[in-house]
Amino acid sequence: MPGAPSARSFEPPKAPPRPTLAGNAALGVTQIVLWGGTFFLTAVVSDPIVAETGWPQAMVVGALSLAIFVSGLPAPVVGRMIRRHGGRPVLVAGATIIAAGLVLMAVAQSLPVFLLAWVIAGLGMSAALYDPLFAAIGQAYGAAARGAMTQIAISSGFAVSLCWPATRFLVDHVGWRGACLTYAILSVALVVPLFAWALPARSRAAVAPAAAPRPHEPAGSTEAARLPAERLLAVTFTMAAMIMTAASVQLLNLLQTLGVGATAAVALTGLIGPAQVGVRVVELAFGRRAHPAWSLLLSSASVGLGLLLLATLPSLAWLAMLLYGAGNGMRTVVRGTLPLALYGQRDYAAAMGRLARLPLLGQAITPLTCGYIAEWFGLMPLLEVMLAVAAINLGLSLWVFSFAMRRPGAQA
């Protein structure tokens, strides 16, 4: 009948997508595979590579720093792409690019080609690891993303414990080139389908036009309102990332310098993974009603206290490892949840892209810096530098905390 509203006009609006436990577990698996084929690969394959090729050890190990540096450069662009197009196509592309880098790595017959492979892998890392993944699910799920982030972090929390033995097994049976190819195959055959299945194709927030800044937010770029404390937040994330990287590179050597035997040192570092997972379980069960700024504060304090115990009471190294692991476990989650609480769903992905660059660049220079400090001054001065950075980071975290808790809607 002319003028009558169509049946389509009576259709109720579709409910926004919600994260699922199965989907979050699947996304956790993607991170185990991708971190195993990038960040955690060098520690196992560097010696076999040097033995076969004769390439300088420093260049082989430094290739990871090159990849991390490269991954930080396009991070803001990746965030804007997720905001405009949703997370699924961006993360699928990132995993595919990582696979291409790993294939080139496996067939590299010269050092320049090997380094180029890591540059390609670094470009993929910028679009497929934790930061873009958290940006994608925050963009898609809004307030419901906090629990999803924690569940993903729980399921991927044993990545080091799983990937190092698995990579060692591959190197022993198919060589380092076969190990790289295996991770490339897993990236395409497992990770890409899991991203395509577990991530929404497109979120309403990803296609919504930019709205005017909310009354309590200053006007910013056309992509997202920038908070006054954005640079400060980026610095706190960078310091935490640098401490984590320094510990992953030098922790075993530090423990042995403090008088811990090699076998005992390996056993002590094995406490870090369970501590990371344990604190994420606690966060999932009890932390949902607390503002994520509390997690930032507790993370910084826990890492700092762990390093302080290690420096002053080596006999309590086991407790130091638990505290450090707990703080580092919270750090992974808070990097996703705190920006979501501060920016909101609409601006979150672009903000995550901006916030990701500085920590990645800091991580890239950390192994080289730690190596020079250890060589010129010794491992104990290196531990003192790490402790000083942790103390500064705790002070900055208090500053961020006070800012976050003053914002409208913050929960005590």
From TrEMBL:
Transmembrane spans: 21-45, 57-78, 90-108, 114-137, 149-170, 176-199, 258-279, 355-374, 386-405
One Pfam family in the UniProt entry: MFS_1
PROSITE patterns: MFS
InterPro entries linked to this entry: MFS (IPR011701), MFS_dom (IPR020846), MFS_trans_sf (IPR036259), Proton-linked_MCT (IPR050327)
Domain Major facilitator superfamily (MFS) profile: 24-408
Assigned keywords, A-Z: Membrane, Transmembrane, Transmembrane helix
Protein name: MFS transporter
